[in-house]
Amino acid sequence: MGKRQFSDEERYAVYTVHAEKCYLCGVPVDLLSMEVDHVIPEALLDDPPKLAEVLAGFGLSPGFDLQSFANWMPACGPCNGRKRSRVFDPTPRIQLELQIAAEKAPKAAALAAEVVTSQKLTKSWNAIKRAAAGGYLREDLRAAICEFASQTAPHREPEVAARPMRLTPLIEVISEAGGIRLVRGPYGVGGGPVGPDVHGSFRCSTCGHTAWNGARCVVCGQMDDD
Ligand SMILES: [Zn+2]
Ligand SMILES: [Zn+2]
What is the reported pTM? Predict the structure, then answer.
C-alpha cells in the first residue's frame, strides 16, 4: 500500500490545530516544511493481524481509522525521519497524543473543509508555495500571503496566536498592524509599508521586496546605497 499524499488543506488543518509544532520534540515548524506523521503507522494497513494487535494495545477500537485526523500529527523532518514506520509502545505519552488528536479531529476536519470551499485560501496557499520556490516575495505573492495570514489568524491556537506565523522556512508573518508588515528573511527581520500605493522608492531594486532592516533588504541582502 502506497504512502498517503496529504492535501494542502489537510496539512494546514493538522498544523493549525496542533499549535504549529512538532508533536514529538515540541520545536516550532513552518507550514510548508512540516510533515504529517501517522501516530499508528500506515504501514500496518498491510498487516491486519499486527494492526489489530497494536490497536488493542492502545485501547483503540478495531475500526480506528489510521487515515484520519485522529491519527495525524505534525512532525519536523528529523523526528519523522527517525520514527519512520516504527510502532510506538502504548506508553501514557503516546496514549495522550492520540487522545489529543481525537479531541482535535472535529476542529481539524472543519478547518480543512473551510479551506476547500475558500478559493481565496487556495489561491494564497499556492502563492506561498510559489514564493518559497522563487526565494523571494513579489508584490502579488505578498498580497496573497497577507490574505492567508489574516484569514487563518482567528483559527490559531491561543498559545501561538501572538507568535510569528511561519509559512515557509524563510517567510514569517509577524504583524499586520498599521499597514506595516514585518517579515523574517535570510538577512533578519524587516518591515515596510504594504498596499497598492507603496512608492517604488520603498522597494528593493534587486528583489522588489519592501522588508527593510535599516539599509538592508532582509530578503535578498541588498544594501540600499542611494
Ligand atoms: Zn521534531
Ligand atoms: Zn531585496
Answer: 0.79
